[in-house]
Design a protein that fits this description.
CATH class of the largest domain: Alpha Beta
Number of strands: 17
CATH topology of the largest domain: Quinone Oxidoreductase, Chain A, domain 1
GO molecular function, one term: oxidoreductase activity
Order of helices and strands: EEEHHEEEEEEHHEHEHEHEHEHEHEHE
Oligomer: single chain
Largest sheet: 7 strands, mixed
Radius of gyration: 21 Å
Domain Alcohol dehydrogenase-like N-terminal: 22-132
Protein name: Alcohol dehydrogenase catalytic domain-containing protein
Domain Alcohol dehydrogenase-like C-terminal: 171-311
CATH superfamily of the largest domain: Medium-chain alcohol dehydrogenases, catalytic domain
Organism: Frankia nepalensis
Shape: globular
Length: 362
């Protein structure tokens, strides 16, 4: 098959071996796949993979790896020990986990688990779900990205006095905005340097947006949430009726988390999804004095993933505003460079077959 192949730290489009489905697996023809920041982290920071003890990621510089874990495919054939419960030709998507004879792997993050940057990929039969005919492939492929925002918002367990501030309006930050809106949360504040992404945030439900180049997001939060009242005191009992700041961090660059700690309101809760692969340093003493609570990573859980897919298919969640560019396989190397830029589109979609439109029954 043709694929955008990662090897020796670089991606080139060429022929590579066709994947063969093992026990419990099926072979699918890729229709649509998105480029995620995690693909860039996997490619650019293999040391982060080496430090992970889960075994889900499996980087080998000297072996072909086909990335891509946000996808929709069409069933081509079934491997041994499968039920064949969906007809060949059915459009499907799946939680991006490959289960079979070998170790469990994240799809697109191992030579044995080729992802959607190629013409063919392997899926776990028990995890796949059919994509209804009326749902465009590009939108169903974004279930994974929007499930991450759903996970963080669910884990935040926002109370009636919590006022969220989303730092970073990439696809995952935008997915959190959508998850907040679906819950009827308001106001929703979003900060990003990219003005076009802030406009997308508004389309997905943000009520207030700000570029940190223009003004402190934390000053905006105080203006909107406190409405002229005093913030939480350094000493003494806090007003139980006072709004609480909940920051969702979706940037993933060194220094961002510490900047939040320095600028945020006392008693802020931070849910950090960014996690720069090279590590970070924070002012723990400042965090302690402010009573900051920080929760890191994880998810999405299956309930978030499949619930998000159901919402997209039912029309309750429109993910199309985040799609900014579509390329074929030959365009993947350049598209990866665009995805690295802070001013690039929130999501770039890959159509391995070169189709101009994969909506409707495709």
């Amino acid at each position: 098959m043709r694929a955008a192949v990662l090897r020796d730290g670089r991606v080139e489009v060429r022929e590579t071996a066709d994947p063969v489905p093992g026990p419990g697996q099926l072979l699918a023809r890729t229709l649509s796949c998105a480029i995620c920041a995690s693909d860039l982290h996997f490619m650019d920071h293999p040391e982060g993979v080496a430090a992970d003890d889960s075994g889900l990621w499996d980087y080998h510089a000297d072996r072909d790896i086909v990335m891509g874990h946000e996808f929709v495919g069409e069933i081509v054939s079934y491997g041994p020990g499968t039920e064949g419960r969906l007809p060949v030709g059915t459009r499907v998507t799946s939680l991006p986990v490959l289960v079979g004879a070998g170790p469990v792997r994240i799809i697109g993050c191992s030579p044995e688990a080729p992802g959607g940057f190629g013409e063919l990929m392997l899926l776990t039969e028990s995890l796949v779900r059919a994509v209804p005919e009326h749902v465009p492939s590009d939108q169903a492929a974004l279930a994974d990205a929007f499930a991450v925002g759903e996970y963080y918002v669910r884990r935040a367990a926002l109370g009636p006095r919590d006022v969220p501030l989303v730092i970073g309006a990439g696809a995952i930050g935008l997915s959190a905005v959508a998850a907040l809106r679906r819950r009827g949360v308001g106001p929703i504040l979003v900060a990003d340097y990219n003005t076009s992404r802030l406009e997308t945030a508004k389309a997905l439900g943000a009520t207030h947006t700000i570029s940190p180049a223009d003004r402190s997001p934390y000053d905006l939060w105080r203006e909107v949430a406190l409405e002229g009242r005093s913030g939480r005191p350094a000493f003494g009992a806090a007003d139980p009726e006072a709004p609480q700041c909940v920051v969702f961090e979706f940037v993933g660059l060194p220094g961002v988390l510490d900047g939040i700690i320095q600028g945020c309101e006392r008693g802020t809760r931070i849910l950090s999804a960014g996690g720069p692969p090279e590590g970070d340093r924070i002012s723990s003493m400042v965090a302690k004095r402010k009573g900051v609570n920080i929760q890191f990573g994880g998810g999405p859980d299956p309930e978030d993933w499949y619930g998000t897919l159901e919402a997209i298919c039912a029309g309750g969640l429109d993910v199309s505003p985040v799609i900014g560019l579509t390329v074929d396989l030959d365009g993947v190397p350049d598209a990866l460079q665009v995805a690295r830029r802070a001013d690039g589109p929130a999501r770039i979609m890959i159509h391995p077959a070169g189709d101009a439109d994969l909506g409707g029954t495709r």
